[in-house]
Amino acid sequence: MPQAYARWLVPAVFQPFAVDLARRASAHAPRRVLELAAGTGVLTRELVVALPHAEVTATDLNEDMVQAGRLLVPQAAWQQTDAMHLPFDDARYDLVACQFGVMFLPDKPAAFAEARRVLTPDGTALVNTWDTLDSHDFQRALVAALVEVFPDDPPTFMGTVPHGYADVDRVVSDLEAGGMRCVAVDSVTLEGHAESVAGLAAGYCTGTPLRAEIQARGDLADTTAAVADRMVSMLGEGPVVGRMAAHVVEATPAA
Ligand SMILES: C[S@@+](CC[C@H](N)C(=O)[O-])C[C@H]1O[C@@H](n2cnc3c(N)ncnc32)[C@H](O)[C@@H]1O
Description:
Layout: H1 2-26, E1 32-36, H2 42-50, E2 55-60, H3 63-72, E3 77-80, E4 93-99, H4 108-118, E5 119-130, H5 137-149, H6 157-160, H7 168-177, E6 180-194, H8 197-207, H9 210-215, H10 220-235, E7 240-253
Parallel strand pairs: 1-2, 1-4, 2-3, 4-5
Antiparallel strand pairs: 5-7, 6-7
């Protein structure tokens, strides 16, 4: 999964937002940075470039992601860590960053309280979450393709997890419940550039938790090909440019 994710999805879908988040991080000139749910390290790479003098610790729940990230971005210290239970001292970091990871956390206020605990009192948390499915050209086409392939029982992952935390008022309220104060909320729309739409289909179907939903319904390779055919009919073969919207939230520990 990490290889398919890094090959097909990171450049087209995650890289543009990593550049955005690293730019926001560098404005704070942090010395110690903790990244949560770092995946294969697309944001980590941008952070170590933007903050050459900072100590960057990158973490993810999935050990396979951590191993891939360690190879791809060796400048960071990598550690397998559940964002819900951080094995770090209080007030250890000036900045905590999490790119498209908070939607995966079962108890978001508890996770934000953990982030607050490890932040210095004047530290910063930077978090981004996808906006609604209809604001993401690639993921909207993917879900439409899945409905065509599995009309009776379409997989639900993309709508309920990546796009299941699109209500920014809820994000702000969960941060406040975790003891954080929101400083800024931006809605950002960026372009994703995919070399091929079949590659996008391969990335989503084999490089994300959607893979398990597909395997519960049918053959992975056949389904990936069928999804790719339908996505090509909607988007073209590629190269293709897609509009992708997200919320970017900056918060600090509440007094
Ligand atoms: C959509 S990926 C984002 C990865 C990376 N931030 C990026 O931008 O490419 C979501 C990541 O959240 C991680 N994750 C899920 N639950 C987690 C948890 N409880 N603690 C830490 N990471 C978690 C997954 O392993 C996955 O790598």
